[in-house]
Design a protein that fits this description.
The protein is an all-alpha fold. The protein contains 7 helices and no strands. Residues 222-226 have low confidence and may be disordered.
């Protein structure tokens, strides 16, 4: 095996490990938010340092491969894609930490109202985001752009929930003035989750660029095969 092939395999393993960590961070942050589990929220916050460490390591690996081995064709596309995916994964880790901080700041003994969770469909939104991350990782590990393309359509539902949530939360605050702060926090969390979905679509675009040499930017999520 050529040295560059070994370096690329090592890079792929590191990205895959970071991917799994970020998905677990989102899962734990969501559980902490929905249940009011502060201990789990603090665990997410403390593990954010590991995500940041991965980002620095992967950035350095990408730069070294380009500088030392001058990759071409699909190897070059792979390294460039991993560099950008790494940035998106780090941002996803930041969003997971923000959701965990929301959970950690909830008043003691006052978890989010289950009715608000149901009406905003935030549980569905969270499940969709976790599925988007899983699909992206599956597409990455199987090198399958068709799997990656499914992410675009899933993000449409995330956007729909985000848009609908504004009126729902406004009505909730009007009828539950004592819970106005939680309502406002929830609005912020949903907005962060919508941005989470956007970063997942960015990752899908980079995977398709790497696998198919096809630039997806500005094509539009509703028609990923255009």
């Amino acid at each position: 095996m050529k040295v560059i092939d070994q370096e690329i395999r090592s890079l792929k393993n590191n990205v895959s490990e970071m991917w799994s960590l970020v998905r677990q961070q989102l899962f734990n942050a969501g559980e902490a938010m929905l249940s009011g589990d502060k201990e789990l929220a603090y665990k997410v916050i403390s593990r954010e340092r590991r995500v940041n460490a991965f980002e620095l390591k992967i950035d350095s690996d990408c730069e070294d491969i380009i500088a030392l081995y001058a990759p071409v064709a699909i190897d070059l596309r792979f390294v460039l894609a991993m560099y950008k995916i790494n940035t998106n994964l780090e941002r996803l880790g930041d969003f997971a930490e923000s959701i965990a901080r929301f959970a950690g700041n909830l008043p003691e003994g006052e978890p989010v109202d289950p009715d608000l969770i149901k009406e905003t469909r935030v549980q569905i939104m969270l499940d969709e985001l976790l599925e988007m991350l899983s699909l992206a990782q599956e597409a990455f590990e199987k090198e399958d752009s068709e799997i990656a393309s499914r992410i675009f359509l899933k993000d449409n539902l995330v956007d729909e929930i985000n848009v609908a949530s504004t009126k729902i939360i406004a009505n909730y605050i009007e009828t539950h003035p004592g819970s106005a702060l939680i309502g406002l926090y929830m609005a912020g969390v949903i907005r962060k989750m919508e941005r989470f979905g956007d970063h997942c679509t960015n990752i899908a675009e980079e995977l398709i660029f790497y696998l198919d040499a096809k630039v997806m930017k500005h094509i539009g999520k509703a028609d990923p095969k255009a």
